[in-house]
Design a protein that fits this description.
The chain has helices at residues 6-20, 33-45, 80-86, 90-112, 136-147, 162-169, 199-214; strands at 25-29, 49-51, 55-59, 62-70, 76-78, 124-128, 152-159, 174-179. By secondary structure, it is α/β, with parallel strands linked by helices. The protein has a domain at 6-53 and 114-214: Rossmann fold (3-Layer(aba) Sandwich), CATH 3.40.50. The chain has a 5-stranded parallel sheet with strand order 2-1-6-7-8, with helices on both faces. The chain has a 3-stranded antiparallel sheet with strand order 3-4-5. The protein is globular, with a radius of gyration of 16 Å.
């Protein structure tokens, strides 16, 4: 299956989640592309939409290769095998994580536009992205929302390799993934349109979701 766009993928994912009857849920999307998917999910479920902003910790001299990820509160996930393979020391990971946390806080403030974060304590949280590769950023997000007191954690994505889905499934209550191809090279190969989502689009969608929830 090739999705036309993130919006198309979000609508298909929302249809799957509606059938699951998840009840009093909050949708937390991972920017940037995940917010486009998450917006469609939140709209279909009539659920609040907010962001969770984990950041990848790139390998030394190979920033696109994730050796781990960190969330806003410092929740850290390290891919130990990859870190050892590329020579990412504990000190390197700690220093890079500190730098990424500063960037996370800047982005969160900008995306929310002064709105308070959605309260997730005691609720079902649906974590949404436009796809998973290694799953490092999603695992950091899982660790973060668990620390905030979520009652149930659900991960919902359009596409991910089977080994990543298995890894994520071991850490959450439920996983919804529309397709799990064994030949997986990049998330973008499963989309006809996969242009980079802008910060402005993220801000616009979050504001629109907030207005929907307020009934204005």
């Amino acid at each position: 299956m090739i999705f036309r766009s993130r919006t198309d993928a979000g609508r298909l994912l929302a249809s799957k989640l509606r059938e699951a009857g998840l009840g009093d849920a909050v949708v937390l999307a991972i920017p940037r592309g995940g917010v486009v998917v998450g917006y469609e999910v939140a709209k279909a479920l009539n659920a609040p939409l907010d962001v969770v902003v984990p950041r990848k910790i790139g390998a030394p001299y190979q920033p696109e290769l994730a050796v781990g990820a960190v969330a806003e509160d410092g929740s850290l996930v390290v891919e130990e095998n990859i870190a050892q393979l590329v020579g990412a020391s504990d000190e390197y990971i700690r220093e890079t994580a500190e730098m990424e946390i500063r960037e996370i806080k800047r982005r969160v403030e900008r995306y929310r536009g002064g709105r308070p974060p959605v309260d997730i304590r005691g609720k079902t949280v649906i974590l949404v992205d436009d796809g998973l590769a290694t799953g490092a950023t999603m695992r950091a997000a899982i660790k973060y929302v668990r620390g905030l007191g979520a009652r149930k954690i659900v991960v919902a994505v359009p596409v991910a390799p089977p080994e990543t889905v298995a890894k994520i499934r071991a850490e959450v209550d439920e996983v919804y993934c529309l397709q799990t191809p064994s030949e997986f090279y990049a998330i973008g190969q499963f989309y006809e349109e996969f242009e980079q989502t802008s910060d402005e689009e993220v801000i616009k969608l979050l504001a629109a979701a907030a207005r929907m929830e307020a009934g204005t």
